[in-house]
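#structure-requests
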Amino acid sequence: MVNIFLVDDHEVVRHGLIELLSVDPELKVIGEAGSVAQAMARIPALKPDVVVLDVRLPDGNGIELCRDLLSRQPDLRCLMLTSCSSDEAMLDAILAGASGYVVKDIKGMELARAIKDVGEGRSLLDNRAAAALMTKLRGAAEQSDPLSVLTDQERVLLKLIGEGLTNKQIGDRMFLSEKTVKNYVSRLLAKMGMATRTQAAVFAAKLDRPVRSNGETNLESLCIYGW
């Protein structure tokens, strides 16, 4: 039996999934949530085997939620089920630790099989995602400077994380909403192959030289806050 927790901001989607999965005796939905806050409050107590979650949520995103959940429960399995099929989102999810990524037009039997596979410890990565991931990893390995994968604005964000600022404080500095900052932090962590915000803060704090943007502007002098 695979115990499942659903995270999607649309109630009709959650109820549809519960009805769909209930016909399989090997699957059991033990909880649901419509937001990051609800998921973080309920999942630790219920201890599901697999969390099926959407990428886009009203108070954050599923990729960052996946990373946070796995940092607390490493044996948990996350399966992204979303209408967003971009390569970037897929790679971000994989780098965050998701065991699989499927789009919402998947057939019911295929979804049930995917959940079982993830629950048994297998990873779901189609050929396109595998090729894109290998290209990204090869590119990262070829970079002599790990900061070269970051945009100017992401370098500013990294610096502010290193200063210990909260998302709200960063948003005030960069004229962004707190929710937008959370999304950009998630993207930055994925680009740098880091699992937690603390890793990024430690990395930024350890820099013993000016961080240059495109070989010209150091991080201290960057004042381009518009995205």
